[in-house]
Amino acid sequence: METVCDAFFDVLRKLNLHDVRQPGIGRRTRLRDFPDDFRDVPGLQEATVIATADGHARSTGRRALAQVHTAAGLGNAMGNIASAWHNRAPLIVPAGQQTREMLLPAGGRRYREARWRSPTLDRCAKGTGTSG
Fold first, then answer.
1. How confident is the model over 69-95, as a mean pLDDT?
2. How many Cβ atoms are within 10 Å of 55's Cβ, its own excluded?
């Protein structure tokens, strides 16, 4: 059965887009099944991958792909997306969430609660904090 990921890469092949710019460590799970005919172009974060895609598109005259994370990731990228738009760079920018295995388990928490206490933060939370 074809997955959404398979269909996505098929569309990229039809568009002749074989360089995939992706931010951060979220790439690790996606790279596990990364097709051999594609090249991963890593970037520190979303603004970086948009900037490199912008430069690539303008220097080659071809479309460039830069994948970003939703919400904060797309927010980080917006300045460079606006710049690429003004530059008339032909970018394709899909925004996606984490992989399924990173989703919260039913009825549970993914991360443990912090077990440390901070007297300063406790005072601030009660409205009795002092500065300095």
1. 93
2. 14
